[in-house]
């Protein structure tokens, strides 16, 4: 089988070395930067029609070893799947999302280990796309800039009551209270995040301003008590079927004249089908079970249908590519520590996931949009300034 496949592989001229189960080596191109270690002869058949999902699965299961920089591993894996794979993209699926299913999915991803996340996140533990005002910022600076950018877009003021949907470890909630003087209710479905988030609120003496709760978005109060609502990296878990309900809950939570900010990953395709060549399937299987990415147009439409008026949209696609590169590099620099916190299989998943997502954003396979909407005042008025000038002072 390998003899039949060798001409096709060598013809790609990729900087790859194959190391077979018997120790023999085969270079597919000059100056190999990546070595694929075939521990199992069955991998040869997968190389004849590879996808990012099948290659990733082989690595996670230990049938395939990878040596070399993860960013280069991902690039070469994509080149292999593009040249030898069938390039098929699966039809979009629409999964049911109830409270139990969503809670289990959130726990699977976010309750992994607070210590593991702390290895490669910034000090505030902000697990979402950072904001690079000049492109020269490090991760710490860019994450603080993102928190500032969100609060500015929300025109957050002292005394405002902010709802943070999917608050994570509470970095944004604490920033909004500390820097803007806001009162904040943050909600999450992750017990691990909640425990650490509450401890950090206590450590900073913000208990009078910040409250964090274990609460599903479907149970949010609908009496318009909040002045502003922010949701960061959360609607990816909602599912296409529940997007109208999600938008309705945000509408009901905010007062007339209030603002709603939705910051999240969006699909390249109008129908929301997964990223091609198997990358989306890998993420659904190993990283974000039941996750679904809507297209920007779908989200804008659903927000509009419930009565929210979209007033500003910003793409941060390359910002997320840079953020994920930082995360990947930081994890790669602390693999020994990570191996003591999570299983070998889990670490393999996350090495592929972070480097792979950085590549996906850089290639434009997926996007990240901040969508700012308002709940109009009676008669159609609003409280926004006439221009965006205040955002950039």
TrEMBL record:
Keywords (A to Z) from UniProt: Lipid metabolism, Methyltransferase, S-adenosyl-L-methionine, Transferase
Keyword Transferase belongs to the record: yes
SUPFAM superfamilies per the UniProt record, alphabetical: S-adenosyl-L-methionine-dependent methyltransferases
Pfam families on file: CMAS, DUF7884
GO biological process: methylation
Molecular function GO labels: methyltransferase activity
InterPro entries xref list: CFA/CMAS (IPR050723), CfaB-like (IPR048027), CMAS (IPR003333), DUF7884 (IPR057206), SAM-dependent_MTases_sf (IPR029063)
Domain of life: Bacteria
Domain DUF7884: 13-75
Recorded family membership: Belongs to the CFA/CMAS family.
Name of the protein in its database record: Class I SAM-dependent methyltransferase
Organism: Zestomonas insulae
